[in-house]
Amino acid sequence: MKPVWNEQQLEIRDYYEQVALQRVRPSAAERDQNLSFDRQIWRDLGASGLFGLHMPEEFGGQGLGLREFAAALEGFARGCQDMGVLVSFVAQVGLVQAGLLSYGSEQQKQRWLPGLIRGELLGSFAITEQGCGSDVRAMKLAAHQELDGFRLNGQKWNITNAPEADVVMTFAHVQDVGERSVSCFITATDVAGLERSEPFELLGNRGTPIGAFDFNDVLLPPSALVGEVGQGLDVLYFAFLVERVLTGLVITGCMEPLMEDCLQYSQERQAFGRPIGDNQYIQGQIVEMYCQVEVLRSVLLRAMDSMEQGEDCSSLASLVKMLATENLHQACINAIRIHGNSGYRRDQYFERLLRDSIGVFFAGGTIEIHRHVIWNNLISELNQGKRSRQGLNLGVYQKADVTAFTQPTEEALA
Question: Which residue ranges does the record assign to the Acyl-CoA oxidase/dehydrogenase middle domain (predicted)?
Fold first, then answer.
């Protein structure tokens, strides 16, 4: 199932699968049970180069292309089977790092990106509030502009990485500037007046620290503003586009070994004197998983090609998210059904992945929101002949000459 990757991409994919198998997967069940986040794993991932494979070399990345990074992330997801770590990873790389790279000032990129890429910092992207999820314009966090900066008051809720984050990128309405007021800010989490909760107790994704931020008269300097006042929605929509594509890559990586495990089991498990794989209903479930993985990977590659060409691929990104979340959930249910009672036990990863799959239904926008995005894009193309969102800086991932992948030394990973 690897014909889409060239030789170097296969090397990258296999390398990061081994990184995950050795450094993430062995403790995945423990983190799920204890609701814990392991900072050493984060540092190990930084040392492996995963955070910065596609990021510019000037900030500590390797400067490779999106396909190389996609191969790495798919391989990493294959190996770890820990959606908690993967959700934290996507929040940092697909939201915080992507937003900084595209809209951050040179000073902001120099300050934050090297530490994020090395895994020394954990990033958080704070949008959601109580009563305000997909309707981002309804957020209540307020930023009052003063002579020495911006004073923020309000709360963010259900935020990935919040209880552990070192840096947060957040969004607020700047007061008294007119209708275009949503703005983006970035700050260290130890700033005066910023408090965060303990991790929320959730059904799944328990290896991801999710909680709340309270902004109590938090004074941020003008240098904390990402882009310009009123440009927050541009940053947000761009980051969402990247996050949806990365979520699709993560789910593809998780689904493929799930299908392979079911296929192997269907040949080993005997019932009524023959392998259960001889039954057409078992065959149908496994073939459906295979088809879903291949279709999802094909759409993902189209979306990444568009990103490398600097084109708006929001419809493809929403399609990726829709296909990925719905298919992962059904694949987990089928895997448990195929394995029977053994699949229902907690010493397998199937039940953990099933619980995790529920959370990705609404993370980054519900299925209904993605259908709405695609509908609006279709209508725009019908009426205008083309679709282009003003303010989206889509050029940061444009394809360049790909350099050779360099594996980190054992000393770096020690």
Answer: 124-218
Enumerate long-range contacts of 45-48, CB under 8 Å, 24 or more apart: 45/19, 45/89, 45/119, 46/117, 46/118, 46/119, 46/120, 47/118, 47/119, 47/408, 47/412, 47/413, 48/16, 48/19, 48/408, 48/413
pTM of the predicted model, to two decimals? 0.93
Residues 6+ apart with CB under 8 A from 410: none
Same fold? 7-122+409-413, 125-231 = no
Cβ(104)–Cβ(225) below 8 Å: no
For domain 7-122+409-413, say whether CATH 1.10.540.10 is its number.
yes
- The residue from 129, 243, 256, 351 that is catalytic is 243
Q: Where are the domains of the chain?
A: 7-122+409-413, 125-231, 233-397
C-alpha pair distances (Å), 306 with each of 53, 93, 247: 19, 19, 17
pLDDT at 399: 64
Bridge partners of residue 155, in order along the sequence: 214
Burial class (CB in 10 A: 0-12, 13-18, 19+), 94: buried
Tell me the per-residue pLDDT of 189-203, one tens digit each, with 9 for 90 and over. 999 999 999 999 999
Q: Is it the case that residue 1 has pLDDT exceeding 60?
A: no
- 243 a catalytic residue: yes
d(CA 120, CA 43): 6
- What angle is formed at CA 184 by the lines to CA 179 and CA 188, rounded to 5 degrees? 150
Residues 324, 73: contact at Cβ < 8 Å?
Answer: no
Q: What mean pLDDT do residues 36-47 have? A: 96
The CATH code that applies to domain 125-231 is 2.40.110.10
Which CATH class, in words, describes the domain spanning 233-397? mainly alpha
pLDDT 10s digits, 316-351: 999 999 999 999 999 999 999 999 998 898 888 999
3-state SS assignment for residue 311 = coil
Is 161 within 8 Å of 124 (Cβ atoms)?
yes
Of 15, 117, 59, 45, the closest CA to residue 404 belongs to 15
Helix (H) or strand (E) holding 257: helix 232-268
Q: What is the mean pLDDT of the chain?
A: 92
Q: Which residue has the tokens 């190996």?
A: 79
